[in-house]
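Quick one before lunch.
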Amino acid sequence: MAYLKYYGHSAFELYVDGKKILIDPFLSNPLSPVKASEITGVDLVVLTHGHMDHIGDAVEILKNNKNAKVVAIFELANYVGEQIGDTSRAIGGNMGGPMKVDGLEIALVPAVHSSPIGAPTGVVIRSSEGTVYHAGDTGITMDMALVGEIYKPDIALLPIGGHFTMDPVEAAKAVELIKPKVAIPMHYKTFPVLYGTPEEFKKRVEEKGLDTKVVILNPGEKYEFKF
Ligand code: ZN
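Model of the zinc ion complex:
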């Protein structure tokens, strides 16, 4: 069954259409229940941007999982390809229409943030079992309404910690723009500077009376879905 598993910070394992996808696998974060060396059977590693708390342990995972490919914005995908010594496993694209990868559609979408390598992005992963939008690190932007309108994500993974990204106030507004069936908060509690809490996010979404369910995952927890 399709699922999302949370590893703390912005790191998720997504399993759809028989593919195991690691998104922003910073598994050396203090809240992660697993180590990068324990991760096997990976098909794709998807990265939103070049900050180290998002590239995370991608290089180690790709070195250990020889069939796995990295998908990211062009410059970042190439950089990681060079780090693993195999650029043929780097699928670099850019913001625009989705890339067709292993039977999935993966679209890079705008994120309002910074990045030392390439531009920062969010990512939409479309499969026959559902569409997941991982917003990466971002402030709020009206572009999210377009992501909602075009891709109709079933699940939106949204940063809520504040300081570097949206906090619960902006993230609740983002839910209003995106209109997903399910919203899952991320990028909180890893470091003291991230003050936003999932409880406040949930409360603020519920106050808006939207048709979106907030699901809070503790690191190591899995959310199974069928839409
Ligand atoms: Zn960042």
